[in-house]
Amino acid sequence: MSLKMYTTELRQYNLNMHQIYAVIVGQCSDVKVQKMKADIDFTVAEDNCDPIRILQIIRKICQSCQAEQFTILSLVKALKWLMSLKQGRKETNVDYLERFDNNMTVCFSCGGHLLFPGALEYIALADYQLDYHTITPQQQKLVQTQAQEFVAATIYLENASDRYSSLKTDLSNGFLKSTNNYPMDLVAAQTLLLSTRELKPPSSPLSISQPRRSLCLLNKQRTRRRQQQPLEPATSKRTCQK
């Protein structure tokens, strides 16, 4: 690509971002704009006409995770929403995944995470046969990425509809028999749900295009989170820890 072509495309990109930003802000009421301005990230979003950042601010406002709210309360509420989110009886996996990812994004934007000590120890022992606090800082970063994805996948699967109850039972029984088939990330969890025969299928079953759209959505979301924390997870297969 020539420098002239790159400059032209960059100029068009910046123009598009400014236009999208103006449309988003223009659709907000005066009350919501005032709440947006109270957010600590608003100045950066406004100076750069960043539509992604301004949408994240709006999402936090809609979830009551605002700068004027007690920080710990915002974090607790965000974690509560994420942990208690359930797939509806007739909700498709695509819609469930989108709601789950939105809640997880809000949780992270409020300062939350899924780096539970038990999960960190489990991954460190499985990958390095060592305690988490004894591995190198670089290894700890890799473990953190994997642990967060593993916990998210487990929450997502556990809160799936009751029509997947047989799948959950099979996974639990398999673990007791020293066979761990629990998905390690959201992509694997969604693939598992899509490939499992539902106990009581909803009245509006998934179309052929929905599984493909679901996995494409997952990959885009996973790439976005990796760009925010560019770490590569190890690919070792989990085994049961006795």
Task: Write a brief structural summary.
With 242 residues, this protein is mostly helical. It has helices at 3-26, 30-37, 42-48, 51-62, 71-84, 93-109, 117-128, 137-158, 165-176, 186-194, 209-228. Residues 204-208 and 230-242 have low confidence and may be disordered.
Q: What this model shows, in words?
A:
This protein is an all-alpha fold. Helices cover 65% and strands 0% of the residues. The model is unreliable at 204-208 and 230-242 (pLDDT under 50).
Provide tags for this entry:
242 residues, mainly alpha, 2 domains, 11 helices, disordered C terminus
Q: Describe the sheet with the most strands.
A: none
Share of helical residues: 55-70%
> Termini, distance in Å?
55 Å
Strand content: under 5%
The outline comes out as globular
Mean pLDDT score: 81
- Our Rg estimate from Cα atoms comes to 21 Å
Given helix and strand content, the structural type is mainly alpha
Order of helices and strands: HHHHHHHHHHH
How large is the count of helical segments?
11
Number of domains: 2
Uncertain ranges: 204-208, 230-242
User: Using DSSP, what is the number of strands?
Assistant: 0
